[in-house]
Every structure is written in structure tokens, then in C-alpha cells.
Specification:
There is one protein chain. This protein is mostly helical and 469 residues long. It has one domain. Helices cover 70% and strands 1% of the residues. It contains 19 helices and two strands. The chain has helices at residues 2-22, 31-43, 45-55, 77-95, 100-103, 106-123, 128-152, 157-184, 192-196, 203-222, 228-246, 251-268, 273-299, 309-314, 323-341, 352-355, 383-414, 418-437, 447-465, and strands spanning 60-61, 74-75. A two-stranded antiparallel ribbon has the order 1-2. The longest helix has 32 residues, at 383-414. The N and C termini lie far apart (60 Å).
């Protein structure tokens, strides 16, 4: 009887799935894989953790498989992450809570405050459904890449595993994207977006991820206890990251890498925080003294983004004709006007792209401006929370950046193990490249950026709590 039931269910699945495939609907085809992941989650949760990490660079959006849905997510990762979050919360209830030392850590406290404030501003949101979807996605990213990851990082070798479980498939994706780029036109800047599809939303996210992981690969090549053949493999990965970064044509990524190098020198030469703050203050003073002259010079720059790498770099300061730069200014201006309109609670998490259109000025619109909410977000990880969650949302994001950098420096100086000292430093520099990049873009709503940002913070917390010798 039981065998017959299995055959009947299997036949039913084949028939239904075959019918849906004829209608170009492939969602039901994922059911067997879903059942397999559920079984793994129940019996071998650690396997699931490493599997989902490996799939992060390979994930593709749901819209690639079906159309007409109001929701979009990355497959196969986000459904798995949501399931892992549920299991994590259930285990917390059964085990009687989470490690109090981690909960009391400054980074965790800021993350907790962010979650509470996102909940509050989701309740008061102009679009509550959108905001609660935003909250849910943030929760499953943090559950897996931060809270669960920290428990894995109690074993130091898992830190290395985490980094390389992401780096190895990322290297493979770089090969695929570069080959696609060559087929379209390697030196064609306009090919940078279609080349990264469907693995990345656009070339700027691709560039940001490469810039974030570049210091890790470099660290394992030049400052690790790896054997020679392992260093050779790390060198191949580093070379691929550099090639991918160049042909990502992401100017923000290039700038962030340069900023990361400056941060590296500051840390290595132990330049005091007061000196850094003094230097920053001098830059601010210089901006107010000579800002008008610099602005006039930038307005006189007519070099647009180009296939020519030299001209593409020069176009970074073009705020007179470059549509990409001008559209960023437009989005930033809208975010500030939205903040001025709702300075306390904002419009609600995740709502910027649906609410910013009325705040555009006709004089600031560009040839790529849109009212449809389909042209990306606020293009800033700092102004986005400011417009969506009010002043406190913006301040908490800044606090997270400052505290994580402080913790990273402390964790680096604390380690005596050669590999972990290198990891603390390169993870910190990777985070700094992201913090610099997202002054011009925002990616924390994607699995690829979240695995890096929250995972890197989890590594720093683990190393800050434990001196590894």
C-alpha cells in the first residue's frame, strides 16, 4: 500500500510538473530539491550552512524563471536562508537563548537597535507590506550570516572555510562573466551590465563584491601560512578578482579599493586616530575653502563614462554631462527631501524606490530618470536609511560603520596567530571598501553583499572575543 502511494504521488508530480513546464513555469520543479534541503536541515544543519554559502555567488533572481510575480528573491539561497532562520529561532527557544557575551558585544547591540527601529518604522511605514518584507529579509540574512556564523567561528578553521566557500564559486563566476564579456566586447563599457546577468543585478554590485573580497585573496597570497601550492591557488583567485574588477567598469569599486589601500597604510603604520581625525577635519575645511573652485572644475569636466579606461576614470568627477553621476545626485537630493519631509520615522524601510518620484525636480532629472521605481534605490547605504527610517536610522548605520572599524582594529592587534591576524586585517579592509563604495550605491538587500558584510562583522566579533594563538 505504501509503495503504491509513493508511485501515485510521484506520477502526480511528474504530470503536474510537465504541464507547468509547457506553460514556461518552472517553480514546481524545485520541489524535490526543497524536500532534500529540509531533510538536510533537520539531520545535518552544518552541511546546509556550507551549502548555502557555496550557492551565494551562484544565486539568480526568481524573475529569471517566472514572470508576473509581485515578489522577487534570489534562488536557491533566500528560501533556504528563510528556512534556516526559522530553525535557528526554534532552537533558541529549545536551548534557552543565545550566547549572552555575543549579545552584549557593541556590534550586536547596534544591529539589535537597528532591527528594533526597522520594526518600529515598518509599523508606521507608508507601505507596511513592503517594509515588513524588508524586515524579514534583513532577519534571515542576519540570522545566518551573523548569528549562526558566529557560532561556527568558535572553531577558527571555520573562518577560513567561510571565506573560501564564498571565494571559490565567486572565482568561477568571474570566469563565466569574463567569457560573456569577451563574447559581447571585452573593452565595451556598455557590455558590463549584460555580462553580469543573471548573477548580479548590475555591474556596480559585481564590482563591490570583487573589491570586498580582493583583500582576502591578497592576504592569503602574501601573508598566510599556506603551503606553496595553496598560495598558487590563492594567486589564481586574486588574479581573477583583479581582472573582474577592471572589467566591471565600476568606478565606485575602483575608488573604494584605493580608499581601502589608504586605510591599510593607516593601520599598518599605526597612525593615531587623532591624526586621522585631524586629516579628515583639514579635508572638510579645504572643501569649504576651495569647494566652489573644485565644483566649477567638476562642472567643466565633459568626459563621460567610456570604453577607454583612462577616460572612464576621469569621468568620475563629471557632474555636468555624465548621466550616471547626475542621476546619483538626483537620487541623493530626493533622499534628503524625503528626510526633510519625514525626519523622525521616515517613509518606511524599503519604500524609497516607490516614494521618491514626487521629490524629483525637473531641473535635476536626467535621461535615465524614472518615476516607476524600477531604476534602483537611493544609491547610498547612508541616505537610504535616513529617508526611510528617519534620523535615528541614519545615525545607527553610521554607528555600525564606526564601531565595526574600531572593533576590527582591536581584533587585528589582539591576534598573535599569523593567519588570524591577517584575516582580521583583510576582513576589516574588505569592509572598509564596502563602506566607501556604498556612499554611492546600496546592496544590503542582496544575498551576495549580506554574506560579505554581515559575515565579515561576525568574523571580527569572533576574533575580538577570542585571542587565537
Amino acid at each position: 500500500m505504501q509503495v503504491g502511494l509513493v508511485y501515485l504521488i510521484s506520477l502526480g508530480f511528474v504530470l503536474v510538473n510537465s504541464y507547468l513546464i509547457t506553460k514556461d513555469n518552472y517553480v514546481f520543479a524545485a520541489l524535490p530539491a526543497g524536500i532534500l534541503f529540509i531533510l538536510i536541515a533537520i539531520y545535518r544543519f552544518d552541511w546546509l550552512f556550507w551549502m548555502v554559502l557555496f550557492f551565494i555567488p551562484l544565486s539568480v533572481p526568481l524573475k529569471e524563471f517566472t514572470t508576473g510575480l509581485d515578489v522577487n528573491m534570489f534562488l536557491p539561497t533566500e528560501p533556504i536562508l528563510a528556512g534556516m532562520m526559522i530553525i535557528f529561532l526554534l532552537r533558541l527557544g529549545l536551548d534557552g537563548g543565545y550566547d549572552k557575551a555575543v549579545l552584549k558585544h557593541p556590534i550586536t547591540r547596534i544591529i539589535g537597535l537597528q532591527l528594533v527601529w526597522i520594526l518600529v518604522t515598518s509599523i508606521t511605514s507608508t507601505m507596511p507590506i513592503v517594509s515588513f518584507k524588508f524586515l524579514l529579509s534583513r532577519l534571515w540574512f542576519l540570522s545566518v550570516f551573523y548569528f549562526i556564523a558566529i557560532k561556527f567561528f568558535e572553531e577558527p578553521r571555520n573562518i577560513r572555510r567561510y571565506l573560501w566557500t564564498l571565494l571559490i564559486p565567486l572565482a568561477g563566476i568571474i570566469v563565466v562573466i569574463t567569457l560573456k564579456h569577451i563574447s559581447i566586447g571585452l573593452f565595451d563599457q556598455k557590455a558590463s551590465n549584460p555580462a553580469v546577468d543573471p548573477f548580479f543585478n548590475d555591474h556596480t554590485l559585481y564590482g563591490a563584491i570583487l573589491a570586498m573580497f580582493l583583500p582576502i585573496a591578497a592576504g592569503y597570497v602574501f601573508s598566510s601560512p599556506f603551503k606553496l601550492w595553496m598560495k598558487a591557488g590563492a594567486f589564481v583567485v586574486l588574479s581573477l578578482l583583479l581582472v573582474g574588477l577592471v572589467f566591471s567598469y565600476s568606478r565606485a569599486a575602483w575608488v573604494s579599493v584605493a580608499g581601502g589601500i589608504v586605510a591599510l597604510l593607516i593601520i599598518l603604520f599605526r597612525i593615531k586616530g587623532r591624526t586621522v581625525l585631524l586629516g579628515f577635519a583639514l579635508v572638510v575645511v579645504a572643501f569649504f575653502m576651495f569647494g566652489k573652485i573644485a565644483l566649477m572644475k567638476m562642472e567643466g569636466n565633459k568626459i563621460d563614462s567610456s570604453n577607454n579606461l583612462e577616460k572612464h576614470i576621469e569621468s568620475i568627477s563629471n557632474i555636468s554631462t555624465d548621466a550616471s553621476n547626475l542621476e546619483r545626485l538626483n537620487r541623493w537630493s530626493c533622499a534628503l527631501r524625503m528626510f526633510a519631509d519625514k525626519p523622525v520615522l521616515g517613509f518606511g524601510p524599503g519604500t524609497y524606490m516607490f516614494q521618491y518620484a514626487p521629490f524629483q525636480k525637473s531641473s535635476e532629472r536626467t535621461i535615465i530618470s524614472t518615476n516607476a521605481g524600477d531604476g534602483g534605490n537611493s544609491h547610498s547605504e547612508y541616505l537610504g536609511p535616513l529617508s526611510e527610517q528617519g534620523l535615528l536610522g541614519g545615525l545607527l548605520m553610521l554607528a555600525l560603520v564606526i564601531v565595526s572599524i574600531t572593533v576590527g582594529i582591536r581584533a587585528y592587534h589582539k591576534q598573535t596567530d599569523r593567519e588570524m591576524k591577517m584575516v582580521a586585517l583583510t576582513v576589516l579592509i574588505g569592509l572598509i571598501t564596502y563602506y566607501l563604495h556604498v556612499t554611492m550605491n546600496n546592496f544590503l538587500d542582496t544575498d551576495k553583499a549580506s554574506a560579505g558584510v554581515w559575515g565579515f562583522m561576525a568574523i571580527l566579533v569572533a576574533l575580538d572575543r577570542k585571542k587565537i594563538t
